[in-house]
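INPUT
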Amino acid sequence: MAGILIYSDKTPYALELVTAGQIVAKDLGLPLQAVSINDADQAVELGKRVEVYKIANDDINLADTAAVASALKQTAEQVSANIILLSSNRRGKEVAGRLAQSLQAGCLSDVNSFTINSGKIECSRNALGGATVAVQQIETANQVIAIMPKAFEKAPEGSGSLHELTVEVRPRIKVLEVKPKAGDSVDIEAADILVAVGQGLENQGDLAKVEAIAKALGGEVACSKPIATDKKWLSEERIIGLSGKKCKPSLAIVMGISGQVQFTVGIRDAKTIVAVNNDENADIMRMADYIMVADLEDVLPELIQALS
Amino acid sequence: MNIVVAMKQIPDLQQVRIRNRQPVFEDVPYTLGNIDKNALEAGVALKEALDAKLIVVSAGNEELEDTIKEALAAGADEAYLVIDDSLDNIASDTSATLIAAAIKKIDDVGIILFGEGSGDNYSGQVASRVAEILELPEVGYAKEIELNGQSLRVTRSLEESEELVEVELPTVITVVSEINEARIPAVTQILKAGKKPKEVVSPHELEIAIGSVQVTTLSNLAPETDRKQIVVKSVDELVKALTTEGLIGR
Ligand SMILES: Cc1cc2nc3c(=O)[nH]c(=O)nc-3n(C[C@H](O)[C@H](O)[C@H](O)COP(=O)(O)OP(=O)(O)OC[C@H]3O[C@@H](n4cnc5c(N)ncnc54)[C@H](O)[C@@H]3O)c2cc1C
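OUTPUT
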């Protein structure tokens, strides 16, 4: 039994997985198939690109990881797939471990890229909180690989086909309510200039100054994790780092952020990094092109003035 | 009822230095994962509400007995530890097998808590693997846990939405760091916590044979960084430099 199966709860990520899957399929000479669960529109989109199996089953709620993992296992068995590619968003990561366990498969999550060497998929992922990049490969016949969103381009339309598939699961989670998170449609990964602030920003009121600087530069405001999750001053969409976004702007102005690896992993691909911090020994200083030891209280108004 | 919180012993990443792109672990002390500490704190809150016992479960090398004192000081009542020389830097599937086997030895487990990802590898597999082995439901990325009779109501934090779900006990839950602020025990509390009950077993006693390797690591290097490291003294100097580079004012 050999073949590749892709699945994501999110259609854009599923289309990215088609691209990743096509690379693996070509290099390993394996068939590529996709599955969609309770998402007819996604099945249609995938069906324009690959052979897709559509599952429609009211017992499967996407919040029920055991049910989704079981549905994927049954699909893999029915379509003879041994390499399962998932998206490494929260739902995908959660399913990955469970599916891997049930398939006795090795599993890698948060995979940023891969190359194929002597029949093995060599995956790169961040390790040690982001301090290093580990290149790892799965040795078991069954493999579960969860790939970071946006690591691959969405596959263009090509040829494909749509089939139906039935699976049986036992539901155990009841969803009572779904609330969208406060809408912030900003895409900091797409921004060419980022102005990022951290806990060195003492007053929430000073955010207006940070926004003014970003605006003057034609960039976006971003932040370290505590600013969004602890202080809730900005939306989680703006977090840079391991559990946030990985950004590659041409310019990142990083202010009042200490530069722990979980943050820097999200900004180390920036072309130019400016660090402003009142502690000359802050870790962020070591990875900056321009280092400015100063207090934000002074720098913010001066920057606004210099840029206007 | 017993509540289990599974925690991972990791090297203190703040103290890992990079030399020639290689991480250097010499003299780096062990600690517990940050999000694991949030899971522990969530366990303390549930234990008080349910009048339950909170047991910390972990697998690791012989340093673990010392490392786990912090969890005992921060509110765990007992520790159940799987310790062996070979359990250093163990893979997710091995961790899951050991933790699941340990949990099976504990009676009347209602809730099993994990952090959403470990502090070092952050691959987020172990909780899901344990849930699969124990055939339990799981609720990941919890930011709020509320008791509701024999079931829990959990608010999950996903990328674009929050989901309120209901799950019957026993269940596996993973938490996000936003769920609470984990307490930091004082050094004296940590010393005293050494006296709390601890059960130490070997993988052999759990009748677990560490299986063949599922994942191999080909390299693990810090990315190359080549930064200019120019110190600027004033905002004017900075703006001038960035303008000269064509980065701003285009
Ligand atoms: C599994 C895991 C995942 C994580 N993921 C992320 C992630 O994706 N993104 C992320 O950011 N973090 C993440 N973290 C948290 C991370 O470890 C750090 O705690 C966080 O990045 C610190 O944020 P900070 O730099 O804003 O705050 P601090 O570390 O508190 O730094 C504040 C900085 O501001 C400076 N400062 C203070 N006052 C002033 C002033 N007046 N003027 C100028 N400078 C000043 C200080 O010198 C200091 O350097 C994660 C942690 C874990 C365990």
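end of record. Residues A 198-200, 202, 224-226, 239-244, 256-258, 260, 262-263, 266, 277-279, 282, 295-297; B 34-35, 117, 119, 122 surround flavin-adenine dinucleotide (CB under 6 Å).
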